[in-house]
Every structure is written in structure tokens, then in C-alpha cells.
Amino acid sequence: MTRLQFFTTICGLCTALAACGDPSAGGPTAPGTLAPGCPTADAAVSALTFNGTWRTMPSLLPARWRHAADVLGKSIVVVGGLSGSELEALSRVDAFNVETRTWTALKSLPIPLYDVNGATPVQGKLYVSGGRSSPDEDCATTLFVYDPATKSWTRKADMPLKGCVGVQAHVHGQLYVYTFPQSPPDIRLFASYNPKTDKWVRRPLPKGLHFAYPVAGAINEKFYLTSGEAFTGLSDRELEVYDPATRTWTTKSPMPTGRSVASAAVLHGKLFVAGGVVDRNGLAVVTGAIEAYDPLSDTWATGPSMPTPRAHATSAWAGGKLFVIDGIRGGPLSSQVEALSTTY
């Protein structure tokens, strides 16, 4: 596969999403192309279901997509992203205090970034790896760390390879990153970063590709990876788990709804996956579906769909709720912030 084909696969969906709802946009011609009119899809309902209540929270402005977020202290910290066109990469960082329900601007990133692998807290600091600043630039190797005590960003050791549109999680005091450089997807990186030594170590790759915008989470000191594109024109449903103790991957029950460009967070010891884009008879369709994976029973359950179906959003767990922040509904960007309360 050529480099051009690689970029077409990643970026074609984003272009289709932005064109959705535009009467001048041509009809879909291939799998992964979103139909005009922004159709939405329900989940492929699993045998198990759970209840919950969605509430609207204060909006995050400007609206953005392809951003990252996680919890640092009492706040959800949202990093980078795109606002509007591909040319408007953001360096801004915003924090939502879950107690006061207010947004506050924090120290900006050293450079504008979108499609970062994540924003992950490790030992009280926020780690942001990879990403890119414009469509014309390669994915970055950078690792930036935000220290809330000094309200400043510091650059740490670069990743072994360039990487963006990946995922990361905190496991055993280290940052685990699964990502892709700007080259064919058979070149992948799974590595761990040790903050104490400021060094990276490559780890065994998963069996599945989970190509472009997968989701991940850490549960019981293991790295859970699913979603993304299977690089066959279909969304990836496979769930794989990496155990650092044995340095091996294990395949678990697949996600009921294959999807890409979804968001995820860990809540109550379960991996919750929200929204994204699904394939419906060759059309890329935005979904509001919520599904949660329980490692204890190796089962998935379907929950109440998001009031606002979105793709390219970001999620975080805070205050006992699953937050889904901004994203794209197919045409316009969404500044919607919605939180799910559930006992599941």
C-alpha cells in the first residue's frame, strides 16, 4: 500500500464527516463515505443491557474534534484538537472542574497539536504523545508533560517512532502507547515510557491492526485495546488485552458494534466505548451507541445511547460520570458536553 493510499484511508472519513449535510457534496461512492444528511445508527444490541441517565453539561468552546482528554486532580483536562477546518490546529488546553462545573483555560501546549495519542495522567502529571500540527506535516515523535504544580509544559524523550491517531494508557506507573507513523499501517509502535528513567521500551504488537483511531483503557494494570479500522474497509470489533507481567496479548470477546473514531473511558472497572462511525451497507454512519466491557465476565453490555451522536469526540471519567466532550455530528462541529450517570 502506498503512502497516498494510507492517508486516503485515514483522512477520507474525516472529509466525509465534514461534508455530511452539505447538499453540494457528492453521494457516497465507497465504504467509509458518510451519506449526506448525517444518518445515525443504533448499536448492535448485545444480550446484556444497563441503565443510566444522560445530562447536559456546560459547553466547551470553541467546538473541536480530534482532541484528547483525561482527569487530572478534580478537573477534566482537554488538550489540542481541530476547530473548524484542517488548518486550525489548537494549542489551547482547557480544564472542566466537576465540582463547580466551570471551564478554565490552562497553559497552552508548546505547539498546536491534533490527533495526539492521548492525554494521560501518570503520577500527578499529564502526558501527551505524538499528534501533528497540520495535514502537511509528519506525525510527531514528541512527548510533552504538564505539571499542575508549576503550570508548565516540559518536553521529554521522544517516542521511538513518529506516531499519531493512536491511543495510550497508564499501566504500572508507566505510559503505554499504541500508535502509527505516517507510513503504511504494517509499521506500528507499541511501547512503554518510564517517567523515572525518561526512556522508552518497545513492547510486542497486538495481533489485530486496530488501525487509525482505536480506543484503549487501563483496567487492573492491563492495557485494553479495541476499535479502529481493520484496514479492510470495515471497523474493528476485536478486543485485545496486554498484560505487562507476561508481556503477552490475549483476545477477548469482541465489541458488539464495530466502529472507528469513537471515544472511551474506564468507569467502575469497565471499558466504556461511546459514539463513533459504523458501517451500514457501505455507508459511514455516525452513532450514539454506548457499550461497556466487563473484564470479570468477559461480556459486553449496551447502555442508553448518547442524546447527541458524535464521532471524533473525547471521553473521560470524573465524579462518577462518563463525560463525552465535543466532536463532530457529521456536518457541524459539536460543542456539546454530555455526562452519563450509571451504576453499571
Q: Can you offer a commentary on this structure?
A:
The protein is globular. The protein has a five-stranded mixed β-sheet, with no helix packed on it. Strands 1, 2, 23 and 24 form a four-stranded mixed β-sheet that branches. The protein is mostly beta strands and 344 residues long. The chain is built from one helix and 29 strands. It has a single domain (3-17, 36-341), classed as Kelch-type beta propeller (Neuraminidase, 6 Propeller), CATH 2.120.10.80.
Please describe the structure with a list of short key phrases separated by commas or semicolons.
single chain, disordered N terminus, mainly beta, 1 helix, about 350 residues, five-stranded mixed β-sheet
SS summary, helix count: 1
Summed up, the domain count is: 1
The structural class is mainly beta
CATH fold-level assignment: Neuraminidase
Could you name the CATH homologous superfamily?
Answer: Kelch-type beta propeller
What helical percentage do the residues reach? under 10%
Radius of gyration: 18 Å
Query: Poorly predicted ranges (pLDDT <50, ≥5 residues)?
Result: 1-16, 18-38
Shape: globular
Strand content: 35-45%
Quick recap:
With 344 residues, the chain is mainly beta. Helices cover 5% and strands 42% of the residues.
